[in-house]
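Sample pair:
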Amino acid sequence: MRFVIQRVSESQVKVNGETLGKIGKGFMVLIGVSDSDTREIADKMVKKMIGLRIFEDEQGKTNLSLDAVNGGLLLISQFTLYANCKKGNRPGFAEAGAPDMALEMYEYIVGKCKEQVKIVEQGRFGADMKVELVNDGPFTILLDSENL
């Protein structure tokens, strides 16, 4: 499982011009799922993401968590995080989770986040989404379950 976590001052996602999710300060997270991912892996990833202390405190040090700044989450499914670019110039996506399984994992992740974070917005799985964000920093972290 892979999360690309971007600390944002604002972010939104639209489908066909309709805003589905919008947050102010928080994390815009791209979520990639592989066929080998489980709920246990998702639990570890969500715990790590929510606990990240990457917001600045009064001294300007990255010492505050999402909860400490009343931040929100915008969660976007993104199978292309499992693109394989080793051969040729056209990426392969065989390592990405099958759509039914990936949707189930994405919905599970959204549900777990909603249990712990006040503001959780999301995109639409499998849709052509337009994502806007103001990356604060910029500050971007790749969280990969292979490294947990």
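The chain has two helices and eight strands.
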